[in-house]
């Protein structure tokens, strides 16, 4: 067996498989000549679709869960954790949900991009160790919910994969919206960079019936007249993105919960990977208040405030991910989303 | 439900998950400064690993099956077929095997490459329609085992994904060998471009206990003194690759079966996507004869010769893929690999 066996009952899956959805088609001018098949004339290129792998239990809950990775990540985010335990893919299957783990357009298995890109192997993992709040390299945070074995860190670094085309918030939110068109009403889990396009997907598609956002990044949408002042951190400047009020109001019609983990400084820090999250958490609170002011139902859970300590940027794969899943299940249950 | 429901009993899975294996690490000179996290100094880059998603039934057969995609493809090759039926991932799970579907290094979810690459969206799908022997664009072959619906072709084209670094036969065969080091003895299924590195993986790792090769491409290894004359086609020239006799002999110690589909011309054709396969089949026969001359056990099945007609370059996902799976099961059974 590949991983340490966990004594769990078997997963029972009525149906599993994969498909692509959404995207566009380029067509080269001219006409195709089968005797010159390597010239592009008259040929097509299908790209910018989303890839999904799905599993459906025998008697699933009403709503499936769509799990959308963050920056540099892919479906693996929700699969086996870096230290070899079950991730949210399995945990929510065991809790009776159909799951759709996706690779967004231009990432991972959805690699065919209609826009050219150059991929360079730039060493950057000590940055990610900090940005993902495992610690400040080479030191792990005290009490961090992250296994300190060497192979865990190896798996963690290798669960990244590059963009195969420019990141485009509209292309990726279109992909997820197309997925909801195909599967119907469901719940959206987002992580980090997917937070922002997640709001757009819910604006675009009323089949998004609720959102669980883990550590949304720097992209928050506000009504045009209510965009707050940018927040300056030692990493970057976080600016709200204006959208028409009619679009914004879509976000007031569904329950949303946002989780942030631990080790986010309350005051400005000269460590950029620390300060980045101070600013994001602050912007998230402004966003929550704005949505709720317009009649929305956003809950922001800063985990240490409810006594859950040590979480990184990946609460769903941290050592206490069952406890995090319980928080999510409570939200789903409270909002009749299960 | 995402796909047309097929009335099948549920899949029962004792354990499923994913991991990466193999690969290398680059380290930039200098030392990491947490206050300048976006400069590469002293940072690392883990790349060139293989990604695997695995499923283990409650009482699996002795040997797991590793399924390795071909050129431009990824794990999807073995998952849901373009027309929405079950692929070999599910079929062999149902037959009691543990399955490992992989993305080779520098492809799909194993995207982090230690060598730079530029990805261009070059229209090429009418070429692939021919090269994968669905037909000669825009005409499907008469009797082809491929659904003619528009959405099937859409899914088929979108199940491609680019190399994220240069294709390197040693890097990818090292990745698969590392997988066998991790999981122990097993069976290797290869498709197309994976055929050649598949022979290398078996040379590198005695835990490869048998190979089922679907339409291996142009890369066949021969003893240095026995490399046949290159075969010239209107697509390319196919040359055997020399390896030391001691390496070659590893391939005589395991059972190997090779399948080729239909629509391969017996005589030279001026349609390059047709003629390419005449040459590959001819080289595969020379290779079979050479391995067997040295005491090996290679069976080459040209499917039309046993009365199975209409197969494309993807027999394992063609409309008759259950019939193909039965041929594979017979091979596994005959060779005590199940």
From TrEMBL, chains A, B:
CDD domains: Esterase_713_like-3. It comes from the Bacteria. GO terms for molecular function: hydrolase activity. Keywords: Hydrolase. SUPFAM superfamilies: alpha/beta-Hydrolases. PANTHER family: AB HYDROLASE-1 DOMAIN-CONTAINING PROTEIN (PTHR43194:SF4), HYDROLASE ALPHA/BETA FOLD FAMILY (PTHR43194). This is Alpha/beta fold hydrolase.
């Amino acid at each position: 067996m590949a991983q340490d066996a966990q004594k769990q009952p078997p997963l029972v899956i009525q149906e599993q498989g994969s498909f692509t959805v959404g995207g566009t088609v380029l067509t080269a001018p001219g006409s195709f000549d089968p005797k010159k098949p390597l010239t592009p004339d008259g040929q097509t290129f299908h790209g910018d679709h989303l890839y999904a792998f799905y599993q459906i239990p025998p008697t699933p809950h009403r709503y499936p869960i769509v799990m959308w990775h963050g920056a540099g990540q892919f479906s693996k985010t929700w699969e086996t954790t870096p230290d070899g335990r079950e991730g949210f893919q399995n945990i929510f299957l065991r809790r009776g949900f159909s799951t759709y783990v996706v690779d967004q357009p231009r990432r991972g298995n959805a690699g065919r991009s209609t826009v050219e890109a150059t991929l360079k192997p730039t060493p950057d993992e000590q940055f990610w160790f900090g940005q993902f709040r495992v610690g400040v390299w080479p030191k792990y945070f005290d009490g961090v919910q992250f296994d300190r074995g060497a192979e865990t860190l190896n798996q963690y670094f290798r669960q990244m994969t590059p963009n195969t085309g420019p990141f485009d918030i509209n292309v990726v939110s279109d992909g997820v919206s197309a997925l909801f068109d195909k599967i119907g009403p469901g719940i959206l889990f987002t992580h980090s960079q997917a937070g922002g396009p997640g709001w757009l997907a819910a604006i675009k598609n009323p089949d998004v019936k609720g959102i669980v956002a883990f550590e949304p990044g720097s992209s928050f949408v506000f009504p045009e007249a209510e965009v707050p002042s940018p927040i300056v951190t030692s990493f970057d400047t976080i600016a709200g993105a204006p959208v028409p009020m009619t679009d914004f109001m879509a976000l007031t019609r569904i329950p949303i919960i946002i989780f942030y983990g631990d080790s986010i400084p309350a005051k400005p820090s000269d460590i950029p990977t620390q300060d980045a999250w101070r600013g994001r958490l602050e912007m998230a609170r402004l966003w929550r208040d704005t949505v709720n002011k317009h009649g929305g139902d956003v809950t922001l859970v800063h985990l240490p405030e409810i006594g859950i300590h040590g979480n990184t940027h990946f609460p769903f794969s941290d050592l206490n991910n069952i406890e995090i899943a319980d928080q999510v299940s409570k939200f789903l249950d409270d909002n009749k989303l299960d």
